[in-house]
């Protein structure tokens, strides 16, 4: 039993959309033939389990409490997770040298005194596009592995922090994402990058609702700033509102609101990304 199983959700009226969606779980789970998501085992038991409500809340918030739509979307996600082979609890895959140095997960302290999970995508470090992007399926497995690792650090099955204000306040269980574009040397939209970014955007939109806190695009070369508008066209308005372009990498720490957990290269006082990423891994195993 986890601490989340015993935590109490703020009391809800009988007709609350969250309880309506919860009552549909047995059908959703049997239709999808899959019950796990982001480290949480969805449970239809009553009284409802805290971690199950946290997941349902995200699905409801992403569709303005439309219970039918939330149920449909959750069913699709669970089916997709099963097909994609997520939640199998196997040892983490080694993606080899083509992905070396391209992605990190760290934590950055926030104003509230806790720490936000952050994913770093160092796309500017890609020298040969074919290496990470040539095999779309392999790239997707790598990118989603980074996302799933970041989510695992939210400890959704353990937490007892509900979304404040009966689900209307800011969701504390979200992650920051940072794209580092320094050194990008491809001035046109390569078909491989186009295919990879479209596929990730689609999957994130369909299967990772309410998980993005903020998204930073750092050191976008002036000649490529048009790409921001072009790619943002495929993203929902709600998501695009969370985007921020940072022209000078030294300004990133200030925007993140933390010095100690951000590498000196990005205006902080912390060590490099490799060290910070390793630090989080060690912490998680303690
Ligand atoms: C050739 C260099 C580039 C590569 C390899 C690249 C790669 C990617 C990939 C793989 C994604 C999918 C989302 C993710 O992984 O989180 C993405 C998304 C995106 N990229 Fe880039 N990109 C490049 C250049 C740019 C530039 C110059 C801009 C301009 C700011 C840009 C803006 C965006 C935006 C707005 C998204 C959508 C974000 C989202 O919804 O997740 N990209 N990029």
Summarize this structure briefly.
The chain contains twelve helices and seven strands.
What does this structure look like?
With 286 residues, the protein is an alpha/beta fold. The protein has 2 domains: 3-84, no CATH class; 97-285, Phosphatidylinositol Transfer Protein Sec14p, CATH 3.40.525. Helix content is 41%, strand content 12%. It is built from 12 helices and 7 strands. It has helices spanning 3-6, 17-23, 25-32, 50-61, 67-84, 130-133, 136-152, 191-207, 226-232, 237-240, 252-256, 273-285, and strands spanning 36-37, 40-41, 103-109, 115-121, 175-180, 212-218, 243-246. A 5-stranded mixed sheet has the order 3-4-5-6-7. Helix 2 (17-23) packs across helix 5 and helix 3 runs parallel beside helix 5. The radius of gyration is 19 Å and the shape is globular. The mean pLDDT is 93. Protoporphyrin IX containing FE binds next to strand 5, helix 8, helix 9 and strand 7.
Multimeric status of the protein: single chain
Helix content bin: 40-55%
**Biggest sheet architecture:** 5 strands, mixed
Strand ordering within the main sheet: 3-4-5-6-7
CATH superfamily of the largest domain: CRAL-TRIO lipid binding domain
Cα-atom radius of gyration = 19 Å
Please name the CATH architecture of the largest domain.
Answer: 3-Layer(aba) Sandwich
**CATH domain class of the largest domain:** Alpha Beta
Distance between the termini: 19 Å
Bound molecules: protoporphyrin IX containing FE
Annotation field: number of helices: 12
Number of domains: 2
The general outline is globular
**What structural class do helix, strand and pairing data support?**
alpha/beta
Average pLDDT level = 93
The name CATH uses for the topology of the largest domain is Phosphatidylinositol Transfer Protein Sec14p
Q: How much of the polypeptide forms β-strand, as a percent range?
A: 5-15%
> Which segments are poorly predicted (pLDDT under 50) over 5 or more consecutive residues?
none
Could you spell the SSE succession in H and E letters? HHHEEHHEEHHEHEHHEHH
Number of strands: 7
